[in-house]
Amino acid sequence: MIENQMKKLEEAKKILKALQLPSQQTNNRSAWVFLALAGLEPNNNWNEAKALLLPTHLIMAFIRIAYGMNYKPNSRETIRRQTLHQFEQARLIDRNRDNPKRPTNSKDNNYSLNQPIIDILKEFPDGDWESKVKEFLKKSPSLKEEYKKKRNLNKIPLKLPNGKKLNLSPGKHNQLHADIIHEFCPRFIGKDGVVLYVGDTASSRAEEGGKFMHLESDYLQILGVTPMSHDKLPDIVVYDVKRNWLILIEAVTSHGPISPKRWKELEKALKGCKIGKVYVTAFPDNKEFKNNVDKIAWETEVWLADKPDHMIHFNGDRFLGPHQ
């Protein structure tokens, strides 16, 4: 019995993956929901699939009785929001096919597989199901692709001084990166600034093992910054050509500022760089600054994105510039 249950579960996941659903909608929970909607118990053949009209509580009851998976009552919202909602977006199911005008908060809401999906299931596993999947995806772009497009629309545009355009993944941290390039650099470095490094923890390169969105490795090496030190760099590094300064900027939204410990780490990592180094901690606002003010190292600078025309100098002998 258990063997048949697991076999059916894995087959359901295979179909959902072929339909190009995101990983959260090809897991065990979603596969069991898929089987319930098709009315398929472990010993049923796929060609027995039906388009049942099932409310969420009956889906959970089917999974419990047929597959021994007992979801607690408070899991109902998870099933609805993390599986059924996405199934509907991907056009696998219809909501309230019997009465499309039914209010969304009605206790009688139900879900059912639509006909193209039933046609695919009736051909699985030995029939022409894969061709039917391809045909379905042509008419209904995969949810994975739709989510990817939405993510791209939400990306933060970043234009470097040399004209190069980047797209940072959405988030408060990367928004601060953009503010540093677009607001801080023009004000305090000017047209002579060359952006040598921009980090982006959610970039494609991060997935490959790095954390950078932009890296001028050769330029950094000329300045004495070796490739071995790249993983120690703060979020943004800019070279001020006119003043021959290396500006090292830490963007703080969750992680810490340029603290005495961080300053020592950077000095050690950049010991081969003989030009003047300027350390800057950037905050999105005064609130974040206040949360970190007691951690900031002396002889470093602070910039707030919501007050872009001003700098706070944590030193006693000079304003912006390197310290020896």
Keywords:
Arc Repressor Mutant, subunit A; 324 residues; two-stranded antiparallel sheet; Trna Endonuclease, Chain: A, domain 1; alpha+beta; 2 domains
Question: Describe it for me?
Answer:
It is a single chain. By secondary structure, the chain is of the alpha+beta class. It has two domains: 2-150, Arc Repressor Mutant, subunit A, CATH 1.10.10.1820; 155-314, 3-Layer(aba) Sandwich (Trna Endonuclease, Chain: A, domain 1). 40% of the residues lie in helices and 17% in strands. It has twelve helices and eleven strands. A seven-stranded mixed beta sheet has the order 6-5-7-8-9-10-11. Strand 3 and strand 4 form a beta hairpin. Helix 2 (28-38) packs across helix 3 and helix 5 runs antiparallel to helix 6 (129-139). The longest helix is centred in the N-terminal third of the chain and has 17 residues, at 2-18. It starts with a helix and ends in a 10-residue tail after the last strand. Mean pLDDT is 87; it is low at 202-210.
CATH class of the largest domain: Alpha Beta
Helix- and strand-based class?
alpha+beta
List low-confidence stretches.
202-210
Domain count: 2
- Briefly note the CATH topology name of the largest domain: Trna Endonuclease, Chain: A, domain 1
Alpha-carbon Rg, integer: 28 Å
The mean pLDDT is 87
CATH superfamily of the largest domain: BsuBI/PstI restriction endonuclease, C-terminal domain
Strand arrangement, major sheet: 6-5-7-8-9-10-11
Number of helices: 12
Query: Helicity, in percent?
Result: 25-40%
Q: What's the helix-strand series?
A: HHHHEEHHHEEHEHEHEEHEHEE
- The tally of beta strands, per DSSP, is 11
Report how far apart the termini are: 75 Å
Characterize the overall form.
elongated
